[in-house]
Design goal:
The complex is a heterodimer of chains A (318) and B (203).
Chain A (H helix, E strand, L loop, with lengths): L1 H17 L8 H14 L1 E9 L5 E11 L2 E8 L5 E6 L2 E6 L2 E7 L22 E11 L2 E10 L6 E7 L5 E7 L5 E13 L5 H4 L21 E3 L7 E9 L6 E8 L4 E7 L7 E7 L2 E8 L2 E7 L3 H9 L1 E3 L3
Antiparallel strand pairs in A: 1-2, 1-11, 2-3, 3-4, 4-5, 5-6, 7-8, 8-9, 9-10, 10-11, 12-19, 13-14, 14-15, 15-18, 16-17, 17-18
Chain B lengths: L1 H12 L6 H9 L1 H17 L11 H11 L15 H45 L13 E4 L8 H47 L3
Classes of the chains: A mainly beta (318), B mainly alpha (203).
């Protein structure tokens, strides 16, 4: 009798969870609300990217819909600066030491992960979303959501979304022990009916042309990683030259949407076997040297994950 | 008489009167002692200052325990310290231990100083590299662990740092380029990944 009851109640539970579409008051519902708000509202915010004991980078970020076009301007306020302007799917980048250029993209690749603007729910493969509670951030009532990595190979995130507009007000990247590694904190936010004046001043015709990133065709390398964190996918592979040293390296870029990992393989590199590990802010630099091969992994991941990835390198059979 | 005594005691406990003779009375009168304890307990309870565990009569318990304690008359057992040779060796060893500790502290200091100096080098090197736009304005590296214990020659440390900068810069550049690639290559990439996985899985 009890067994039957248990089975029935289990069935009811699973049916209920299957029918549980993202509602307004679930973590999924909030993330969807955020993504929509980030793409459709007219807002002007200042935020700071903090890496404890390392850097502080203040940004100003404006977004608007002007005549049906999505326009966005992100500006780094310290030092020589970096300005990025996006009009629909064209991003123009102005930074020191590099001639201005444009590239085709429907999001600015800034300090905030692009997937938050697109389809945050795509992260469900690798991350769990948990609705935590409410608190006050930047003088506003917010809803907190935790994004937890399922296989614990990557850092977790805490997001605070504005209760009213759904916009992102704070984001913490935390390691397994709960220590903050990187923090994005909005200092001021204004959401307006009308787009900001600055967008009227942008002369679209004067923006630089889209550059073609494709590199001269080199025979594609055959390196493979046998182990990848769950939900991590290969985005691109090529062979290119490092701009600083001029060394030619084989390269693979992996991403799960929130975190990007670069893997560099340099063969014919004499030297003794060793491992090197550096942390630059949230970025882990890990190089693993074995025989004539040097594997370097760079990304915002725990060193253990970088090590495991580097160790799993193999050459594809065919 | 007793009633009067109790009232006096109560006043004394409350700090209202000073009466030196009362202390002597108290010492000689078990009943009065009992009362004194009772008053204090009442006061503590009223002020909610009673301890978690109430031991009503510690003094009596200790006195009783002492009373029942048998007197030890057995001689002390001899220990290894009393053996002639060992007794001399042990202090020597102990002193040597102190020296060892001092020495290890010195080593730790040296290692500490080396470790402390290295990140400084790294930072100055990063700052001097002004053409480097990938890192933050106040960019710098903090080494987490250097697995080689020997000191690297300065030349190779610089080389190492240059290499790290090269990789970090490239990583930033690649990340910035990513969206473009995602837009164009995504469908193709997915199929590629699937075929790769299919190839790997039978092994």
């Amino acid at each position: 009798m009890w067994r039957v009851f248990a089975v029935v109640s289990l069935l009811i539970c699973s049916a209920a969870s299957a029918a549980d579409l993202p509602s307004e008051d679930s973590a999924q519902g909030w993330l969807t609300k955020m993504a929509t708000a980030l793409r459709t509202k007219n807002y002007d915010m200042s935020f700071v990217v903090l890496q404890p004991q390392s850097t502080v980078e203040p940004y100003r970020w404006r977004h608007a819909i002007v005549d049906g076009k999505e326009m966005e301007h992100l500006s780094l306020l310290n030092g020589p600066g970096r300005e990025m302007v996006r009009i629909d799917d064209k991003v123009s980048v102005f930074e020191p030491n590099v001639p201005a250029y444009s590239q085709q993209s429907d999001t600015i690749n800034g300090p905030l992960p692009a997937i938050l603007f697109r389809e945050p729910l795509d992260l469900a493969d690798a991350y769990n979303f948990v609705l935590v509670g409410r608190s006050r951030i930047s003088g506003r009532a917010t809803q907190q959501i935790r994004v937890i990595c399922k296989d614990k190979t990557r850092y977790g995130f805490n997001l605070w979304l504005d209760q009213e507009s759904g916009l992102l007000l704070k984001m913490d990247m935390v390691d397994q022990s709960g220590k903050i590694i990187e923090q994005v904190q909005v200092a001021s936010l204004s959401v307006t009916e009308k787009p900001a004046d600055i967008f009227q001043k942008i002369e679209e015709e004067k923006l630089p042309d889209i550059v073609n990133n494709s590199i001269a065709a080199l025979p594609e390398h055959k390196w493979q990683l046998r182990w990848l964190p769950q939900g991590m996918n290969e985005v691109r592979r090529d062979t290119h030259r490092l701009s600083v040293t001029g060394n030619v390296i084989d390269y693979i870029l992996y991403s799960d949407g929130l975190v990007d990992i670069s893997v560099y393989i340099q063969d014919d590199y004499p030297g003794e076997s060793n491992k090197n590990l550096y942390r630059h802010g949230a970025e882990t630099y890990y190089s693993f040297h074995q025989g004539n091969l040097e594997i370097t992994v760079v990304g915002k991941i725990p060193p253990q994950t970088a090590d495991r990835m580097a160790q799993s390198l193999a050459i594809e059979a065919n | 008489m007793t009633q009067q005594k109790y009232e006096k005691l109560s006043a004394w406990v409350d700090g209202e009167i000073h009466h030196d003779g009362l202390v002597d009375d108290l010492k000689n009168d078990a009943e009065l002692m009992q009362k004194w304890q009772g008053y204090h307990l009442v006061r503590d309870a009223l002020r909610k200052e009673t301890p978690d565990q109430l031991n009503f009569d510690i003094a009596a318990n200790v006195a009783a325990a002492l009373e029942n304690e048998p007197t030890l008359l057995a001689p002390k057992k001899s220990t290894w310290r009393d053996w002639p040779v060992v007794g001399n060796v042990i202090p020597l060893v102990r002193n040597a231990g102190q020296f060892a500790i001092a020495a290890s502290v010195a080593t730790a200091m040296i290692i500490g100083v080396q470790n402390y100096n290295q990140p400084k080098d790294v930072e100055t090197n990063f700052e001097s590299n002004s053409g480097f736009s990938g890192l933050g304005v106040q960019g710098g590296l903090s080494p987490v662990s250097l697995e080689q214990s020997r000191a690297l020659p300065r030349q190779s440390v610089q080389e190492q740092q240059r290499k790290i900068i090269a990789f970090l810069t490239d990583h930033q550049q690649q990340m910035r380029r990513k969206t473009t690639e995602l837009e164009h290559n995504n469908p193709q990439q997915v199929t590629e990944n699937e075929t790769e996985q299919a190839e790997v899985s039978p092994k």
